[in-house]
Model the fold of this input.
Amino acid sequence: MLCRRDALAGIGKWASGLGLSLSLLACDAELYHDLSERHVNEALLSLRQAGISADKKPSGRTSRGASYTLTVPRHQEARALTRLGEQGLPGIEPRPASGGKLAFLPSEARTEQLAQRELALSETLESLPQVSHARVHLAFAEPDPLLPTAQLRPTASVLLRVRGPLTLKPGELAELVAHAVVGLSAEDVTVLTTQVASPVLPEGGAGEVRSLLVPGLGALCGLLVATVVALAVALRRSRRREDKPQGTEHALHALTGS
Done:
């Protein structure tokens, strides 16, 4: 009976450790929070095409609308971060406007208007099919008391992450930005573009994903079968050990009786 208890205790500890490992594998890791729907969908598509089981969850609302959290299985966290880093995803979310404040100082009002204008221009440029992410920075020189008649010209810089060749030329993009800001000339707008590798669906697509899942499920089934077999063997051995003394006593009774 003692041997049976020891065997059952050992198998129970092994099974509990296996269950704990499986529960940790089942947990999700939250990679990014407060993403816009467009940015979270781009990152989600890239991860799923790489065979990573990513998902999105609503996390609230911002000034731009609904926000989401990007999650992946815990054991795929490092791989997911590497993939997103290579793709330049997700896009940098623009700074939110301070909408809860009712009164502004003159300098704060100018800063707020500037931020709103930058946000609007970024969203306009991101509406272009080839543009993945856009950031616009506007700069207005402060008046110089020593040179009150000096011409203060605003400037702008535009950074674009593109998936492919733009249909619009940099000069046309500069004109687009300049016409949205009073006093800004296209000559004072700098446009820079960086290429972002578009996620490509690997050959086999869903078949490759299935090929990754099937071995994992097979290994899990194998572990469960091994647990059942080990339990059965332990019980069988413990019964044999308990039956041996009884068999010896019957043999002695037979000899003494004869």
In short: Confidence is low (pLDDT under 50) at residues 200-209. Helices lie at 2-26, 37-49, 77-87, 106-126, 170-178, 206-257. The two ends are 32 Å apart (CA to CA).
